[in-house]
Amino acid sequence: MSLIPADQHFAVIAAILLLSAIAFASERTVVGQKVTGTVVVILLAILAANVGVIPHSAPAYGFIFSYIVPMLIPLFLFQADIRRLAREASRTTAAFLIATLGTVAGVIVAAMFLDLSQLGTASELAADRREAGVVGLFASTYIGGSVNYAALGEITGLSADASFFSAATAADNLFSAIFLSIIALIPGAHWIASRFVAHEETTGSKMAETTVTASSISYALAASAGIVAVTDLLCWWLDIPSWRYAIMTLISVGLATAMPQIRDWFAGAFEVGVALSFTFFAAIAAGADIRAMISVAPLLIVLVAILLSVHLTVLLIVGRQFGLTIPELLTASNAAVLGATTAPAMAAAKGWHDQVTPGVLVGVLGYALGTFVGTALFQIW
């Protein structure tokens, strides 16, 4: 039971919007700038749900997952011009690919040492499918953030197992917040930072200044909904529902690259996506039952600890060999683990001004790449 009942749909939505607003407001404070609004809204929602203010599950959350999450992907990916990414963020993109390699290596190492088939109890999922689902799920979330996590939960069928998915959500969100705190401390660790080449700040490219209007936002929302609708029709015609998010990503990136002017036509799409993503972060974090994580699937704690440890080790060792700097590597790692909303915020707070725009761009790349890699690993496993 919670203070706000699950069947009070408008009250639940109001609570989610309030938590999102508080998180945005926190970014005006010193602490909020350091931990970012994304982490704040995640922690607030976990706290609110676990002390009984808002429910762990509610139809309102289902609405967000069913209708808001699919539209988030095109809204973010309208920035994903592959040519621009190569031109303006090549070094940070290289760092991001290393971070992706670290995530894939981490989830494979964890799967080799742990019996992941024990995770999840949904009767319709065979043990090997559960293990494959966990591999794909956690690979995707630590390449592109929680948007990919929700997509792979649907693709793998793990989201149907409420107790497991609640525990997995708790592990994902808590360890993501802890990981952000750890990488924020690394630049101050002289014995690590001194082993990397010095970061010489370049004149970083800036996000194009375009006028956001009611019409441009309307165009963006219409285009986003249209891409989701076309994707669903294709999946239905071809009978490939598990490739829904991969196809949606391919269409969005293809349009952004073929017609880069859509960034101007759909001015404000990214900002609308960020605002909506905070409601998603709050809704998914509300499902994070800490007691379930401890009692139902303590193995998840070991899984995520191994995965992120290997991720960070690969990032630093391989990144150093390629001559990349600490700001480039940590911005890329942040983008991989938490997404495009936190990477530029951390870069700005650290004074790495030339990493702000690359942080957005590689975070957007993560939204695209995470779904593909997670789905591929799931299918292969």
Explain what the structure shows.
- Helix content is 74%, strand content 0%.
- The chain is mainly alpha-helical and 381 residues long.
- The chain has one domain (9-196, 210-380): Na+/H+ antiporter like fold (Up-down Bundle), CATH 1.20.1530.
- Helix 2 (30-50) packs across helix 13 (269-286), helix 3 (59-77) packs parallel to helix 11 and helix 3 (59-77) packs antiparallel against helix 13.
- The longest helix has 25 residues, at 214-238.
- The chain starts with 8 loop residues before the first helix and ends with a helix.
- The model has no long low-confidence stretch (mean pLDDT 84).
> What is the level-2 CATH architecture name?
Up-down Bundle
Rg from Cα: 20 Å
H and E string: HHHHHHHHHHHHHHHHHH
**Kindly state the mean pLDDT as a whole number?**
84
Which CATH class applies here?
Mainly Alpha
Total domain modules: 1
Strand content: under 5%
Q: Give the tally of β-strands.
A: 0
Estimated helix fraction: over 70%
Taken from the alpha-carbon principal axes, the silhouette is globular
Unreliable spans are none
Structural class based on helices, strands and sheet pairing: mainly alpha
**Helix tally?**
18
Largest sheet: none
CATH topology: Na+/H+ antiporter like fold
* End-to-end separation: 39 Å
Q: What is the compact description of this entry?
A:
The chain is an all-alpha fold. The chain is 74% helix and 0% strand.
Compile the SSE list and pairings.
Blueprint: H1 9-26, H2 30-50, H3 59-77, H4 82-88, H5 90-113, H6 127-144, H7 146-156, H8 162-185, H9 190-193, H10 214-238, H11 244-258, H12 262-265, H13 269-286, H14 290-295, H15 299-321, H16 326-338, H17 343-350, H18 356-380
